[in-house]
C-alpha cells in the first residue's frame, strides 16, 4: 500500500507524491513499485496453490509403498500427511487442505456484492 504526501518544492505548485508504506524509498506507480507488486502477488498465489500441489505430488509418490504396506523413507517423512487415515484414504489431507483454501482464501475472491454465492461456496 502507498502513503500520499503533498509536497511543494520552492517555485513550483503543490503536487501529491505517493511512496510505499513499507519502503519509503520506492515511489508508487513507478517501474520499481510495479515489479515489487508483481513479485508479491506471485508469492501470494504461489504459496497456497504450490503447497497444495506439493502435498498432492508427495502423496502420489507414496501411493505404491502405502498400498503395498512397505514403508520407505518418503512415506515415513510424509507420515504427518497420511498416518491418521486408512490406506485407501491416504490422499484425504490434500482434499482437506483444498477445502481450507477455499474457505479461507478463495471465497474472498468472490465480490462482496455476491454475498449469497460466498455463503453457498463456504457451506460446500
Structural account:
The chain is mainly alpha-helical and 124 residues long. 55% of the residues lie in helices and 10% in strands. It has 6 helices and 2 strands, in the order ββαααααα. A two-stranded antiparallel ribbon has the order 1-2. Strand 1 (2-7) and strand 2 (15-20) form a beta hairpin. Helix 1 runs antiparallel to helix 5 (92-104). The longest helix is centred in the middle third of the chain and has 31 residues, at 31-61. The model has no long low-confidence stretch (mean pLDDT 86).
Percent range for β-strand residues: 5-15%
Gyration radius (Cα, Å) is 24 Å
Protein structure class: mainly alpha
Distance between the termini: 33 Å
Give the beta-strand count. 2
**Which percent bin holds the helix content?**
40-55%
> If helices are DSSP runs of H or I spanning 4 or more residues, what is the number of helices?
6
N-to-C SSE series?
EEHHHHHH
Shape: elongated
Mean of pLDDT: 86
Name a few traits of the molecule.
124 residues, mainly alpha, two-stranded antiparallel ribbon, 55% helix, elongated
Layout of secondary structure:
Layout: E1 2-7, E2 15-20, H1 31-61, H2 63-68, H3 73-77, H4 79-82, H5 92-104, H6 115-123
Helix pairs in contact: 1-5
Concise account of the structure shown:
The chain has 124 residues and is mostly helical. It is built from six helices and two strands; from the N terminus they run E-E-H-H-H-H-H-H. The protein is elongated.
